[in-house]
Design goal:
By secondary structure, the chain is of the alpha+beta class. It folds into 2 domains: 34 residues; 131 residues, Sandwich (protein yfey like fold). It has 5 helices and 11 strands, in the order ααβββαβαβββαββββ.
C-alpha cells in the first residue's frame, strides 16, 4: 500500500527541516551562494579596468616584457610600437620608448569595478562616474567621448569612454 502525504504533513516536514538545519549546512549554503555571486561579478585582475592605471593587470608604463609575462605572446602584426591581443582579449597596447602609454579595449569581458564595460549604456557610465566629462567626438556624427581624468606615477592620465548609439564601444586608459 502506498501512503500519500497530506499537505499539512508536507508543511510540517518543511518546517522541521528548516528548523533543524545544522550550522554546517547553513554555512555551506552561504558559501555556495557567495561563490555564485562572485562568479557573476568580474573580480579577477584579468577582467578589470582600473581607470587611469591599468587593464587586465597591465599597468601604464609597463615594459613589453612585463606585458608578455602577464598576457602572453602578442598576436601577429604586433610591432615595437604596439602589442595586439585583439582576437583573444579585445585589447591593444601602444608603446613609446618600450613602455606602455595607452591601453585600448574594444571588446571582451574587461570591466571597471563599477561594472562599466564595452556595451554599457551612457546612462550607466555617467551614473558610475559622475566626474566624467562628455563631449561630441571628432570621429563621427553621434559619437561622444566621456573622459575621466586622474594621475598615476605622478603623471596625468585619462580614461576615455567612446560612446556610439548610446553604448560604450571603446575604452582607452592612457597618459594624458
Amino acid at each position: 500500500m502506498i501512503h500519500h502525504r497530506t499537505a499539512s504533513e508536507e508543511d510540517s516536514m518543511v518546517r522541521t527541516n528548516r528548523s533543524t538545519a545544522s550550522p554546517l549546512r547553513l554555512g555551506l549554503s552561504a558559501a555556495v551562494g557567495a561563490a555564485l555571486v562572485a562568479a557573476a561579478v568580474p573580480a579577477a585582475a584579468d577582467a578589470t579596468i582600473v581607470p587611469g592605471r591599468s587593464v587586465a593587470g597591465v599597468k601604464l608604463d609597463a615594459t613589453a616584457a612585463q606585458v608578455q609575462k602577464r598576457l602572453g605572446k602578442p598576436e601577429r602584426g604586433s610591432t615595437v610600437f604596439n602589442m595586439r591581443y585583439i582576437r583573444k582579449r579585445g585589447i591593444g597596447l601602444y608603446l613609446i620608448g618600450g613602455k606602455v602609454f595607452r591601453i585600448q579595449v574594444v571588446r571582451g569581458r574587461e570591466a571597471t569595478r563599477k561594472r562599466i564595460r564595452i556595451g554599457s549604456t551612457r546612462r550607466a557610465l555617467t551614473r558610475a562616474y559622475p566626474r566624467a566629462r562628455c563631449k561630441a567626438a571628432v570621429t563621427g556624427k553621434g559619437v561622444v567621448e566621456c573622459t575621466l581624468r586622474s594621475r598615476f606615477k605622478k603623471r596625468p592620465t585619462e580614461t576615455v569612454f567612446l560612446v556610439r548609439k548610446n553604448r560604450v564601444r571603446q575604452i582607452s586608459v592612457q597618459f594624458a
